[in-house]
Amino acid sequence: MRTILKGALAGLLAFGFAHAALAHGSKTYSAGEPGNPKQKARIVEITMNEGDGTMSYAPDKLDVKRGEQIKFVLKNAGALKHEFMLATVKENAEHGKVMEKFPNMEHDDPNGKSLEPGQNVQMIWKFSKRGTFEFACLIPGHHQAGMHGTVVVK
Ligand SMILES: [Cu+2]
Fold first, then answer.
1. Model's pTM, two decimal places?
2. Distance between Cα 142 and ligand 1 center (Å)
3. Cis (ω within 30 of 0) for the bond into 59?
């Protein structure tokens, strides 16, 4: 019994470390930096939902000035769990591959949140870098079903 418990615990720890190393090992973020709740922020509401064989964010495009802080008010209006992961297209694609192996990964990071159906979550983000970034749901199948959007920072 003891050995089994230890084995399970070791497995969980290994998973946690693998997750940290693969997805969140670095404290720098491609899309900017975690926001400061004490500074002013533009509020942007983004609703997640499923349609007829599709999944989406509304809106799925956002233009931001470099240095601007955005308070994302995320709403999961769907019947399924969804995520909002803000990074580059490449990073999200790599992270998505990890999630195919570990589909139950949960996110509560400065640049990414997991939302249960009906849940609302806020995320404050400072777009300190110019470029084109992606927000996406990396639960297997969701990105492919259309669950991604673009942020252009000028
Ligand atoms: Cu999703």
1. 0.82
2. 5
3. yes
> How many structural domains is the chain composed of?
1
What sign for the dihedral angle of Cα 132, 137, 141, 145?
negative
Q: Are 94 and 101 in contact (CB under 8 A)?
A: no
Distance, CA of 145 to chain centre: 16
Handedness of CA 139, 145, 147, 153 (dihedral sign): positive
**CA of residue 114 to ligand 1 center, whole Å:** 9
What is the CA 149 to chain-centroid distance, rounded? 11
What range defines the domain where residue 76 resides? 2-153
CATH number for the domain spanning 83: value is: 2.60.40.420
Q: Tell me: the pLDDT tens digits for 34-69?
A: 999 999 999 999 999 999 999 999 999 999 999 999
